[in-house]
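Re: the pair you flagged

First of the two:
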Amino acid sequence: MACAYICVVVIERELMAFVETIAFASADKIFLVVADFNPKARHFYERLGYQQTGELPSLYRNGVTEYLMIKRKDEKSLSLLDI
């Protein structure tokens, strides 16, 4: 079970690294939103260097707040060893 979790985390981080490489080739910032009912995803993005910059209540669903997160090109992510 632990191996499966680590493999998923590595895949998620590698996928985000790929997306960030493409996005940062033409932009200085990346924005994303995370729903308030998904704290694990929010923590994942924070570990990758994203910071909450705002809240968007009822953006997609009534009663659900989306957290607007940003990562700037010069901010560093934690390494895979920090899982």
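Second of the two:
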Amino acid sequence: MGAKLKVPPPDSMGRPSFAAVVGSVDSMTCRYVSACRLEMTGQDTIPNLESMTRQILVDHINFKKIKEKKSDAQAKPRVSPV
């Protein structure tokens, strides 16, 4: 999983920032989905990071259950330490 926030230059008033989160959905980490948002906050953080991350995790679980025919326990994402 990864996230990026692209902020416009300081002199561009009223222009939004572009936030994106990407994550793999399959067991081989070859298929990816993304969540993208326009942010008008003017901050250097992603305000909707939690909901965007939740969307990626739901897509991951659904892909594993539907496409890979995994059980509920097998479909849960594995979290590796940083």
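The chain has one domain: 2-75.

-B.
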